[in-house]
Amino acid sequence: MPTITINNLSKSFQEHHVIQNLNLTIESGDCIYIHGMNGCGKSTLFKIIAGILKPDCGTIEESDDVEIGALIENPGFIETESLSYNLLFLANLKHHYDQNKISHLCNLYHLDYNDKTDIKKYSLGMRQKAGIIQAIMENQNIILLDEPTRGLDKESIQIFIHHINNLILENKAVIIASHDYHEDMHFTKIYKMENGHLI
């Protein structure tokens, strides 16, 4: 069962203490909602969990079966290539490319997998959908989503909520950092991030 245990995590940038002695346990079936003011450290926490940043101190213990998928801040892509090219490129980094699954996810979010349009021409909402897809397309079991509904229309938000609830039923763990709280999402834990702590 995939589990992440965070113990006494701290991170500062110059004199600014963004995360201070933070503790959190993430287990299969968790749907965790984290909210807080801009700059409170939500994205920094996600980057540390994903291995993009190193903490100043503290530990992150992962079970051997953890596979992390993440959408953090603005999704980055190869701008002069198509959606399918980008998703193929990302999936092949770990040799987890499943075209049928990826095509199904694109259809779910009303993106055309076969469209050859450069991704630089995508709207904010379309880019956000592509970012969500890449975070879950390789059967990741710990999924970090930073402001995932930014730029999405109402129909797409409902598709996203239904999809996340299904992932929880599949025993995935999903952690969402967002200003937007969605009542229909089956959150198991809710935290406010303030002064470097989860409350």
From TrEMBL:
GO terms for molecular function: ATP binding; ATP hydrolysis activity. InterPro entries: AAA+_ATPase (IPR003593), ABC_transporter-like_ATP-bd (IPR003439), ABC_transporter-like_CS (IPR017871), ABC_Transporter_VariousFunc (IPR051782), P-loop_NTPase (IPR027417). It comes from the Bacteria. Residues 4-199 form the ABC transporter domain. Keywords: ATP-binding, Nucleotide-binding, Transport. Pfam families: ABC_tran. This is ABC transporter ATP-binding protein.
